[in-house]
Every structure is written in structure tokens, then in C-alpha cells.
Amino acid sequence: MAKYFGTDGIRGRANSFPMTPEIAMKVGMATGKIFRRGDFRHRVVIGKDTRLSGYMLEPALTAGLTAMGMDVFLLGPVPTPGVAMLTRSLRADLGVMISASHNPFEDNGIKLFGPDGYKLSDAIEAEIERLVESDMSSQLVTPKRLGRTKRIDSVYDRYIEFAKRTMPRALSLEGLRVVIDCANGAAYRVAPDALWELGAEVIKIGVEPDGYNINENCGSTSVGALVAKVKEVRADIGIALDGDADRVIIVDEKGNIVDGDQLLAVVAQSWSKNNRLTAPGIVATVMSNLGLERFLNSIDLSLVRTKVGDRHVVEHMRKHNYNVGGEQSGHIVLSDYCTTGDGLIAALQILAVVKKLDKPVSEVCRCFEPVPQLLKNVRYTGGAPLKADTVKKAIEAGEKKLANSGRLVIRASGTEPLIRVMAEGDDGDLVAQVVDDICDEVRKVSA
User: Fold this and answer.
1) Distance between CA atoms of 162 and 50, rounded to whole angstroms?
2) What is d(CA 309, CA 286) in angstroms, rounded to the nearest whole number?
3) Which helix (H) or strand (E) holds 124?
4) Pick from 8, 53, 210, 299: CA 20 to 30 A from residue 121's CA?
5) Angle at 324 between CA 244 and CA 269, to 5 degrees
């Protein structure tokens, strides 16, 4: 079991294990050693979101990296996909993003990208953990070979131009009224500017970060403010990003929420018609709705499922030559453009389809009727609830009840002490009963 890494890098409460300056410095030292692969000046780019604790973790990581002879390029607040893109663009040996994504400001995390812009493999993460636990003093470079630190000023312009180039050249967003909610996070400057430069009328919310309000009653995990603003200004579409802008949720002109499954359906259908798919289907996770799978099958496309986490989606896409994948939560990976989920670029692809079809978002983004799906989280304080016999029996009973009319997915969260219980099927009442029965048993064991 990994001690530091979860489903998406290292994450935890700021200034508590493992998100302390000491661990951050050691992670910097460990990754610096691993990616120091020759007798030349090595580059690392470090981006962050708008959390207060970023001011603590950024210099700690920098200290560890420069101690290993790595030159550090500080990007400031920038979306996670921007870090991945700039890692390649600046020919860096390593990319680092300081963010806890959609979590509240009290949390923070470290995401790492290799020189190709992709997240690190399990093997490299395991090696980092081994080094963090070891004495690395003998690996420190001589004073003459210490790394330097430099702040990059052109980050926003680079990322905006990168995002704009993913749109069809002759397509303008003129005539569209767009509300963008940046979750008071990393995209608070770049996302509204990119949309405006593409011709849209932009109303922006969640663009006043203060170090504490990231994801607070805003963004992709709390879309109430966006729904209200879309209705208030009679917008054509609402776009909600999360704290590091690697996921997106859409709100149509009626105020209805459009999740990642519907967005995947829109892109898959559009790209299939234009012969842009590199494989006859898309990649998603076990959490994606059965309705998406049925819709794709109806247009002769397949849905391949992976474990939860966009990293697993990307790994399968790379291995089997898929160029569209993502998660119900809004991580949409379009590998023609990105090496990781990019909320802004996914939104731009949806806007391109809306403009091309000249139909309202409510029509474009309702490709299928989702089957009833219910997800509940049960918090636990220790142990392994899923190994308890009573919980195992409840899960077996639930699987038998759903039989061939639905699915059951039970897993432990990779970022929080939670057991996630998800069921879906054509009978909504049965789905609710199955989820409640399993959650009750997990609670009993946890208590």
C-alpha cells in the first residue's frame, strides 16, 4: 500500500502529514534525484492553485529540487493541464502542480508529471516513496551545481493561446452568452480571458480568490451559484471548473446540470461523425452511467471502463490508442490536445458543437437518459471495513438483487477515509435499497 500517493498524487490536510514542508522538500529531493538523468542543466516547472498553503509548499519543493541540482521555473497560479502542457513546451524534465483539486482550502496536494506531460507511473511513485523514507544526504549536489529559481511571466498568455488553438480556426463564439465559474481557483484569470478572446460574451464568477475560498460554494462540486447566475442573466451556457481546472461541469440554458458522462457522449458522437476517433469507442471509469454505455452502443461505439482516477483512464487510452476518455465527475481527456483532463478545453469542444449544430445546449448535451444511479459515502476512522464478513455478505446480496439490470461498485476513496457505495439500475427503488443496506453494514463495522 502506498504511504503517500493516492489516486491523484499526494494529498492531505495542509501542514499535517503528509502535506508538511518537510515531506514536500523530501519529495522535491526524491523526484530531483530520479529525474536527474545526465550531465546538463535540468528543468522543473512548478504551478499551483490559489490555496494559502501553496505559499508554504512551493518554497519547500523548490528547496528540495534545487538541492538536487534542478533549475526551478515558478509558474504561479495556473491550471493543472497548463502545468502538463508547459512541462513539454519548456522542455522540462519534471512538472509539479500544488493543488488538492476540488477539495476545500484546508487540504493541498502534489501532482507530478514526467517530461512527456503525463502523470507518473506507479513504479516511479513507489521509488519516490522509497527515497523519501531514506537518507538522501549523500545525493545532494555540490554548491557549484545547485539549481536556480526563476519566475515565468508569460504563463497566462501561453496557456490561453494553447486553449484557443484547440478550436476550429474559423469558428467564433460570438453571439453566445457564457457564465464561467472558476471556483476561485487556478483558472480565475485564463478561462474568462480565453472565452472572451474567442468572441463570447462572458459573465464570470468565482474569480476573486483570497487563499481560503477555493471551491467554497462554487465550482464544479457546488454549482448552485452558477445555476442561479445562468438563469439571472439568461445565459446560453454555464461552465463550472474545479480548483485546479482539470474538470468541468456544464449548466444548460434552463439551469440543468450536465455531467461528464453527457459531455463524453457529445464529444464521442461529434468526433465519430467527423472521423476523428482513433479507436471505435471511448474510455471511462466504473462510475460512468450505464446509460452512456447503452448510448454509445447504439451508435456503434464501445465504452471501456477502468478503475476510478483520470490517470487510469489516460493509461488505457495511451496503451490502446483511444483519444477520448474521462470521468463522470468532469475529467475529460482529449489526447489530441492534452495529456490530462482539461476543463476549459473540454468546454470549448462542447461550445464548438453547440455553434456548429446551432441548437441550444439543453438539446446538444442530452444525448441519453441516465439510468437511476445513487452514490453514498461512508466515513470511517480506521481498519478495513470492506474486509468484514457482514459487509461482504451485504455486497453479495446487492449484486444478486441487481442481477443483469444494473451494476454495483464499492471502493475505498484514494484521497479521503471514505467508502464509496454506488449502484445503478433500471429500478430506482431497488438501487436505493441496495445502497442503503451496504452503507448500514459499513457504518456498523466502522462504529
Assistant:
1) 22
2) 10
3) helix 122-132
4) 53
5) 120
Which 3 state secondary structure label does DSSP give 177?
Answer: strand
What is the pTM assigned to this prediction?
Answer: 0.91
Residue pair 325/283 in contact by the 8 Å Cβ criterion: yes
**Bridge partners, 250 (sequence order):** 239, 258
* Residue 101 annotated as catalytic: yes
| Among 221, 209, 251, CA closest to 78 | 209
Q: What's the average model confidence in pLDDT over 401-422?
A: 87
Segment 234-261 mean pLDDT: 97
Average pLDDT (50-68) is 98
Q: Provide the CA 381 distance to its chain's centre, in angstroms.
A: 26
Does the pLDDT value for residue 69 go beyond 80?
yes
338-351 burial, b if ≥16 CB within 10 A, otherwise e?
A: bbbbbbbbbbbbbb
Exactly one of 53, 99, 101, 329 is catalytic; which is it? 101
Residue 387, C-beta contacts closer than 8 angstroms, at least 6 positions apart: none
Query: What is the rounded radius of gyration, in angstroms, for the C-alpha atoms of the chain?
Result: 22
Alpha helix positions (H), 403-427: none
* Contact criterion met (CB below 8 Å) for 306 and 286: yes
H or E stretch covering 261: helix 260-273
CA-to-CA separations, 325 to 84, 276, 282, 342, in angstroms, rounded = 17, 13, 5, 11
- Residues facing residue 304 across a β-bridge: 283
Question: Which residues in 183-203 are b (16+ Cβ under 10 Å) and which e?
Answer: bbbbbbbbbbbbbbebebbbb
Convert the pLDDT of each residue in 121-171 to its tens digit.
999 999 999 999 999 999 999 999 999 999 999 999 999 999 999 999 889
Stronger pLDDT, 310 or 355, i.e. the higher one: 355
Identity of residue 4: Y
59 sits in which H/E element: helix 54-67
